[in-house]
Write a sequence for this structure.
């Protein structure tokens, strides 16, 4: 077994050789032994373990600051986008809503240990804001066709059942025709049956997904209509209160 001193000596020899090679290459690169030595000393200072760890710590701290600044900007934008939700909440509900917004934005994001949710002040409503918002809500409500949304939902639900049933009947019909064919090898018969089954399965699945998409879109439209009606009532109440003061 080799002695520890022998291993240390061998490592030192290799280090000396590597240092000499680096100095020679730098001297050749800068066409000056003195400049090469200066550059080598710069590298030796720059790449000490302490210097490397310091740069890594600085880079990590910068990344955390950048994450925090981005999160604060996104929080401000989202809070402002939720103005008409926040403005009608009491203080406790408002802070909880802001906490939810902050949690959503920072989920999965690494922040400085002392990072806190920014404060967000919701300004008092003015009569002009309420009048303009009432007009926006009324326009949205009047343009929304709830009957059409409900009809779409019912149609799509029925279409899912009817389409699936009809396609399965057609699939079974085609498979029966394949099974009645004479002169087919069993492997070929199975191949054709598998292709028919795969085709109808794809078509049924594609139709189901499209119907679900249309139902979801209609449900979102109905939910938005109900939300706007509820908000309109709050706007009307706030406006009446402002005008009577």
């Amino acid at each position: 077994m080799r002695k520890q001193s022998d291993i240390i000596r061998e490592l030192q020899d290799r280090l000396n050789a590597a240092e000499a090679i680096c100095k020679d290459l730098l001297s050749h690169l800068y066409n000056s032994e003195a400049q090469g030595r200066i550059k080598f000393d710069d590298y030796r200072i720059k790449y000490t373990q302490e210097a490397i760890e310091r740069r890594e710590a600085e880079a990590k701290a910068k990344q955390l600051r950048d994450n925090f600044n981005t999160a604060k900007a996104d929080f401000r934008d989202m809070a402002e986008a939720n103005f008409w939700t926040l403005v009608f909440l009491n203080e406790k509900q408002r802070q909880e809503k802001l906490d939810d917004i902050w949690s959503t934005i920072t989920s999965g994001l690494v922040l400085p240990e002392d990072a806190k949710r920014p404060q967000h002040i919701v300004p008092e409503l003015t009569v002009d804001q309420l009048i303009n918002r009432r007009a926006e809500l009324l326009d949205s409500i009047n343009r929304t066709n709830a009957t059409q949304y409900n009809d779409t939902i019912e149609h799509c639900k029925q279409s899912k059942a009817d389409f699936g049933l009809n396609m399965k009947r057609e699939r079974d019909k085609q498979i029966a025709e394949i099974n009645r064919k004479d002169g087919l090898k069993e492997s070929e018969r199975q191949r054709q049956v598998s292709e028919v089954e795969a085709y109808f399965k794809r078509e049924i699945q594609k139709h189901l997904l499209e119907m679900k998409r249309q139902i979801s879109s209609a449900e979102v439209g109905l939910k938005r209509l109900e939300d706007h009606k509820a908000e309109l009532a709050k706007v009307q109440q706030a406006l009446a209160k402002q005008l009577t003061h």
About this structure: The helical segments are 4-30, 33-46, 49-81, 83-86, 91-106, 127-143, 146-180, 186-243. The two ends are 96 Å apart (CA to CA). The mean pLDDT is 89. Residues 186-243 form the longest helix (58 residues).
